[in-house]
Every structure is written in structure tokens, then in C-alpha cells.
Amino acid sequence: MQTKPASTYKKPLWHGILLVAGGAIGAGMFALPMVSAGPWFLWASLGFLLVWLVTYLSASLFAKVNISLVENPKTSLNVMHSFSSLVSYVLGKPWARANNLCIIFIMMILMYAYTTAGASIIQSSFSAINIETSPSSRAWLSLCFALATGTIVLIGTTFVSRIMLGLMLAMLISFIIAMFGIYPNLQVEKLFMAKGANSVYLLAAIPVYVTAFACTGLVPSLVRHYENQNAKVNKCIFWGTLLALFVYLIWLTATLGSIGRDGFLQIVKGGSDLGTLNKALVDAGSNPNIQGRLSLFSHCAIITSFLSVGLGLFHFIQDRLSLNKTFRDKSLAASICFVPPAIASFFFPYGFVHAIAYAGMFVAFSFFILPGILALSVFKNQHRPLLKTQSYLAIIFGVLIIILKIAMTLSLLPTFR
Q1: Nearest-CA neighbor of 242 among 53, 16, 47, 32?
Q2: What is the per-residue pLDDT for 368?
Q3: Which of 33, 34, 55, 271 is spaced 20 to 30 A from 261 at the CA atom?
Q4: Cβ pair 15, 224 in contact under 8 A
Q5: pTM
Q6: Quick check: is 194 in a domain?
């Protein structure tokens, strides 16, 4: 039984726009100024624009594929089918398994990154109230953060959604207040007259930028929400990613323009630590209360990101292992979900930026290469040259991201230090 078309008009566009923007904006934005310190403001801004454009094109491409498959009566697919089901139908189970593994890796890597970031922010907050912690305690703070946030996910989706709503409101308010504290101290000449700024550093930053805009995985949810209306889904993708771009550019302007290139050199030498970034903004002459505001924003962003990714992975594991809602099965799913990133953060507590970049490599496959291949397969009998060009662009860009990350891992790319 089909839903009445009239019902779709009751769903405002801003629901989807916020879903896309909220899925992109999070703790990952703290890595952006640190990887942008090499190319600096102008080159970094051009990198942001490039990644935003290709992300939008790739996500809209996948939306066309999704909607076309759902509308085709021969496919037996409907709006409730997931990313995995769509890939499995078009390319077969091996491709679907490869995509599922990539999704798991993306989520695991991000959870590790957010766990280490959470420990850094907690340590910085203790320092702000004159409670000094030893370097060795950083690993234990990571475990405590993972245990606390993992327990919230284990309690249930409704509980998580309520907490996330409050955290997102607090994150928005604290970000706006923090920007008012930073911008009066901003020095425009620091943005445009940085000695040593070089476009070659952009090569290592692009994989991190890709992670910051990743939203293609939300397309099936948008198709489901707007009941297959292509125009609305496409507008949500466009305006949602554009909103994320706007927020990132504001954040980049505030941080680079306040701290300066020499200040970021010290942050990078210190391991690109989030607590150090917050302290550098205070030391640069921003409002003395800015550290508290940024700490609040940092906590909210990291916990929201962790809960969002953790809940998605928790449900994915429950689905793939056919686990029910008993406490035993939920505990098993939670252990598989949260223990590996917690252990990794314990032994490698300073890997936030590197982890975000590794996530970008897997995002390149699932959110760029795969949509391009799907579109070429689904529309192969149709004369649509623009769509073919769009598909090849997404594939080439995804392959480029993977090559860049491999080159960076092998120390073949210049590093700002």
C-alpha cells in the first residue's frame, strides 16, 4: 500500500537540511584548522570548495540511483531498503560485503578518533580548573570516556536521541558565543600574509576534508523521509552540505586568523592536540572566557559525534549478527562496538587527526567510488552524458583520495612541521 503523495508536502525541507548538516558537522571539525595550517587560508578554502562540490555531486548521484531503483517495479526495492541492499542488488553481494566492511572501518576509526579527542578535552578542562593530570592518565581518561558514552548507547535509542537534542542545542549556542569571543581578536593579515603557505600541503589535508563532508550514507534516509521526491532530496543535500561548508569556513577564519601560522606550528609539533588548540586561542588574546566556551562546544561536539556514530554501528552489528533486544545480546553488540576503539585509544591516545584522515580513505570508496560505479551500472542503457561525466568524476576523485592517503602513510607527501 502506497503512502498518499499529499503527506510528503507536510515534511519541511529544513528537516533534511539539518539531517545532512548535522551528520557532517561534529568533532571532526577540530582537525580542520590543524591540517589547514600547511596550505593556510586561501589554499585551504579552495580545498574546502572542491571537496564540497564533489561531495554534493556524488551524493546527488547516489540519490538518483536510489530513487530510480525504488521507482522501478522490476527491482522489488522500496524506500525502506538500506545502502547495503541497494549495492547488493546492483553489483552483487561481494561488493555489498566490501562496502559493509568499509562502513565498519569508517565508524570504528571515527569512534577511536572521538575517544582520543574526548580524553584530550577532559584533560584540558581539568587543567582549566587547576587540576593537573599526568601524561599517563590520558589513556585512562580515554577508557572512561568510551565507557560513559558507550553506556548511554546501550540504554537505548530514545535516550540517545534526547541527549543528542540537548547536546546539539548546547553545541550551537556555545559555538556562536565562542565565535563572538574569537572574532574581535581576529587579524586579517594573518589569513593572507602567512609566510611559507604552500599549496602542496593541501594534498595531505584533502583526505581529512573529505571526512568532514561525508553525508552520502544519509541518502537512503532522505529518500525514505521524503518518500522518493528527488527534488526535495537533492535540495536537502545541496543546502545541508553548503551549510556545513559555511560553518567550516567561519571556524577556519576564526582559528587561523587568531592563532597565526607560527602558533599552529607549535600545535602541530605538540601532536595536534585539541586541548592545545583551545589553549592557543586563549593565549592569542581572545576573550579569557573563551576556553570555557570552547570546552563546552568541544565536549558537546565530541559526545554528539561519538553517540551518532556509535549508535549507527551498534544497530549495524545487531542487524548483521541477528541479535535481539535482550540484555545479553545488547551487551555483546556493545562490546564489539566499543571495546576495540577504546583499547586503541588506550595504547595510542594522540591519534585524532591521523584517524580522521584514515577514515577519509574508506569514505572515498563507499561515498565516491561506489556511487559512481552504481550510476554507470544503473543508467548504462540511457544516453545521459552529464551523468556519466559526474560518475567518472566521483570515481576518479575517490581513487585520488586513496592514493593521497597511501602516499601520506608512506611519507611521500610534504608535512607541515
Answers
A1: 53
A2: 95
A3: 55
A4: no
A5: 0.81
A6: yes
